[in-house]
Specification:
12 strands, elongated, 5 helices, alpha+beta, 5-stranded antiparallel beta sheet
Length: 237
């Protein structure tokens, strides 16, 4: 899987790593190494509605924060599952919403974005990565990955189980466990690497129905034999 950084653009913000002495207004706290180019990458403002043209390329970007105290709130909700630390909500106050209020719309951190690394520190253990995020201070840069959407069409046969256990998120289900038999296992046997169902997978729609985690789980529990359409959010970096 190829990882591509977003191309730099002209900005009134300082580039990451560039020195400064005097405060330069409200933007002086933020830096960025790579600015997302929405037009070139083919995204609109809702990352779930338009995808990058190449499904095998991960789109990532960095946002820098200067002079951060460990007590400063990041201002976002986070879901931790599998190898993915994901933004679930942007709160009114904190570092990330402040960044979003100052940057161009296509540069905003959004729900479903994955936190990939903190100041270059990356870990498959999301608890370790979350600890890096919570303890980050001074000059910090966070690497994010935009999400990707795909549809998994499973065949649920009579007396044949789905083969997945779930945890409930705010508006999605996370796969807690994938069994070695069942409709999910059969899907993975034939799926390409970027469309595997894993313990990092978030499912936000089942047979066209969206809702809260409990509502989606109720839909899953009521499934009957036939085709099951899952709308899946994934990341590939």
């Amino acid at each position: 899987v190829e990882t591509r950084q977003m191309e730099p653009q002209t900005s009134n913000l300082l580039n990451w790593g560039e020195g400064y002495s005097e405060p330069r207004g409200p933007t002086s706290r933020f830096t960025q190494a790579h600015v997302y180019n929405a037009e070139d990458e083919g995204f609109d403002h809702d990352p779930l509605h338009k995808q990058s043209g190449d499904p095998d390329i991960a789109v990532t970007f960095d946002v820098g924060f200067r002079g951060k105290s460990p007590d400063d709130s990041w201002g976002c909700g986070i879901s931790s599952a599998g190898e993915v630390l994901m933004i679930t909500d942007i709160l009114p106050q904190g570092c990330i919403p402040q960044w979003n209020s100052l940057c161009d719309p296509h540069e905003r951190v959004r729900c479903w974005d994955r936190i990939l690394a903190v100041s270059g520190k990356r870990s498959k253990d999301t608890k370790t990565l979350l600890s890096h995020l919570k303890n980050a201070k001074d000059d910090v840069h966070v690497t994010f990955e935009r999400p990707r959407l795909f549809e998994a069409i499973l065949t649920l046969k009579t007396d044949y189980k789905l083969g997945m256990e779930f945890n409930m998120g705010p508006e999605f289900l996370t796969i807690k466990n994938l069994e070695s038999e069942g409709a999910g296992f059969e899907w993975n046997k034939h799926a390409v690497a970027t469309k595997l169902l894993t313990t990092s997978t978030r499912i936000y729609s089942v047979n066209g129905q969206e809702g809260t985690g409990p509502e989606l789980l109720k839909v899953v529990q009521g499934l009957k034999p036939g085709l099951v359409h899952l709308q899946v959010v994934s990341w590939i970096a």
